[in-house]
């Protein structure tokens, strides 16, 4: 199909994320991808290919068309692409669960597999609410979080996204009213820690859990905060009998500089959600892990099952690729690669601080962010980045990058140049 025909059909029938129907601008058509490059079906701004500065929404940590992951997919495809998980099991899912238990914090022993990050958060919330019902505390049914967060686009995750100014503000009068405290400061402030302790203590009788993105808040604003607040949350939750959930869908598998952001604080949640980079960006899969205390509590309840079962739960193809992706990550010095990218981002984005309209530049692990003092002109910023040969996807007042871990120093420098150009244009 020619690009013109494809775009006409796309415009008529395809509803793209966070966009109107029909779309107001045509998307770029990707013909293939390899390494960190997207090859376009038709040139854009004189470019036949673009460096992917987004890792396909933070998931393709090994880049594209990786021979190890390709082989894992092909091998599993020859054996079995899918089988229902109710009443059946298979090696890829069992191996994956065992790997996740091995590499995540110690208390997490049980793994519920699903097919997207939002669903993983839904499952986490359901686990926490059902745990308290099962142990005779049904009034504990609200969630506490801090503002500036983002946990997905399905119903319960939307309720713990920032209700003021967030992308789900439209639903603030319909969603369950959760408990919010202010956004976490970058550095430790005892007054803020006391706010967390006070809020958890005051609402303890109605709180099922506290849920946060540890160290880095993703799509809610790309903000960073000290790991010390995670220790404050752990201590306060233990003191007041509240479960603690870490949403590591964006932060897991090395992105922030530690394998999981929880590792930076040296604390363990009762429930953890992972996704995105779980399969190296190949297939959709997520997981919700919990402690034995949570699992045992649910299993002793009046309804001793977790009534949740996605059709593609435990998909063998995705599980096989996830196992290969985790092995590939751990077999290399991924910490060195993330630190190398972090250093390149710090050096390359420093010049953006002096650009008109730039409020702040910040870097954490393999994440680089330029925050403007106004909303980004998406069309102008995207065009400027494409002219530099880089694909970026700005949003709100942010131009940011999360490159694959295999991105070379030269390509990191080009990504930084594109971020600067986008910031100047946007």
From TrEMBL:
Catalyzed chemical reaction(s): (8S)-8-amino-7-oxononanoate + S-adenosyl-L-methionine = S-adenosyl-4-methylsulfanyl-2-oxobutanoate + (7R,8S)-7,8-diammoniononanoate
Site (Participates in the substrate recognition with KAPA and in a stacking interaction with the adenine ring of SAM): 18
Pathway where it operates: Cofactor biosynthesis; biotin biosynthesis; 7,8-diaminononanoate from 8-amino-7-oxononanoate (SAM route): step 1/1
Modified residues (N6-(pyridoxal phosphate)lysine): 276
Residues annotated as binding substrate: 57, 150, 276, 309, 393
Stretch forming the signal peptide: none
Chief place of localization: cytoplasm
Coiled-coil annotated spans: none
GO molecular function: adenosylmethionine-8-amino-7-oxononanoate transaminase activity
CDD domains recorded: OAT_like
Localization of this protein: Cytoplasm
Keywords of this entry: Aminotransferase, Biotin biosynthesis, Cytoplasm, Pyridoxal phosphate, S-adenosyl-L-methionine, Transferase
Function (record text): Catalyzes the transfer of the alpha-amino group from S-adenosyl-L-methionine (SAM) to 7-keto-8-aminopelargonic acid (KAPA) to form 7,8-diaminopelargonic acid (DAPA). It is the only aminotransferase known to utilize SAM as an amino donor.
Assembly with partners or alone: Homodimer.
Family: Belongs to the class-III pyridoxal-phosphate-dependent aminotransferase family. BioA subfamily.
Name this protein carries in UniProt: Adenosylmethionine-8-amino-7-oxononanoate aminotransferase
Origin species: Streptomyces solicathayae
Gene label: bioA
